[in-house]
Amino acid sequence: MPHPMFEKHQSLLQQAVAAIEARGYWSPYAENPRVYGDTAIEDGRQAFEAYRGAQFYLDQPGVIDRGGAEVSPYGLPLNISYPRCSSDALIAAAKAAMPGWIKAGADTRAGVCAEILAGLNARSFEMAHAVMHTTGQALMMAFQAAGPHAQDRGLEAVAYAWREMKQVPETALWEKPQGKNPPLKMEKKFTVVPRGVALVIACSTFPTWNGYPGIFASLVTGNPVIVKAHPTVILPLAISVAVARQVLKEAGFDPNLVSLLIDDAAAPVAKDVAMNPEVRLIDYTGSPDFGNWLEEHCRHAMVYTEKAGVNCIVVDSIDDYPAMLKNLAFTLSLYSGQMCTTPQTIFVSREGVKTPEGVVSAEQFGRDLATAVSKFLEDPARAVEVLGAIQSPATLARVEAAHELGEVLRASGAVAHPQWPEARVRSPLILRVAASDERAYMEERFGPITLVVETATTAQSLATA
């Protein structure tokens, strides 16, 4: 008998598989706030407010004490405490939960994962407020990126894994004729065997968008998941784990298939847990240093990392120069450059930028870009909805220090938030540097920092990029 959750979501899963094969746009999770109801934003805010100054409940094994010291980048006190659990207890409970989950089969696991995603989608605005006040994203960005877009990524992982698992028949009858003798017959049974306990180490800027692919890819393939939250951004993943555990329990499975692990900067636990030989899968998003360490030392596990990089733009020629400047102003301002896709280093040659109106010098391009950013952000109410807030004080310090790296075309400055007067909001810093000054632009400088690098030719720009 198919599990009821698979029957409920079978059509959704089939549509998701069709979408990944067609490679076109498709999403079952609406990114239009109106779809969630007239009171969805306020309902989400109230749900978020209920967490503040309270103990977050998770019925997990191995509770040692409670922890959590999140501070909203908008200046709002959170004062939420979470259960701090022994990693050994979570691993043991995860392993104990595996047999029934393996036996359930691919269809049931996919159906349960789809039901978890449905539960998360219903709480998208609760998640939006939680993400806003831990990562610094503006509310609408937090809603889309941490809600429907993150859920899309979770479903995509489920769809790919479910499709691959369904390529393996559950049973097969093997029969070989033997001439006059009776045929040789063998009934075969195939089981998709998981690797073991999975560890997802989440980042501080996009905890669900970057966390859900690893969580759901592991869970649907039979691997229990321990979610290690960043110490400054716990609430979004605590909510996610709570939803997953509730659905697993309702579906008749051990909720310890998904658990939350927390720590703090003074006593980090990620390295110790990652080195545990029972951990067989690791998904990590964050700095190259720790990502490289995981790849080098955790040879007992399959390690998947998304590490930082330096995104480059080479400016050579353009049909619509003002439109390009507007586009760059937006992308450099969005979430204050705290995205893995934000451009950092813009190469422009001393030959200038060719436009229908003539050649724009490299020096003029830098000034025009600085002016375009300032103009884009001249309305403070609009600016704060694009910039969001700076997630980490370390990023704030990095921006201040970066002013010394080159000629300042546009200084970064504080932007007053009309609703949150203590919010850490900063406008983009734009610097001009020479191509020879590799120290300035050849490493990632996370945050609202842009370097316009002048080269001799576009060919040099391309080669350097």
Descriptive notes:
The protein has 465 residues and is an alpha/beta fold. Helices cover 45% and strands 18% of the residues. The protein is built from 17 helices and 16 strands. The strands form five sheets. A five-stranded parallel sheet has the order 7-6-5-8-9, sandwiched between helices. Strands 10-11-16-15-14 form a five-stranded mixed sheet. The chain has a two-stranded antiparallel ribbon with strand order 1-2. β6 (225-228), α9 and β7 (258-261) form a beta-alpha-beta unit. α1 (4-22) packs across α4 and α7 (148-166) packs parallel to α8 (207-220). The longest helix has 19 residues, at 4-22. It is globular, with a radius of gyration of 25 Å.
Features:
globular, alpha/beta, 465 residues, five-stranded parallel beta sheet, five-stranded mixed beta sheet
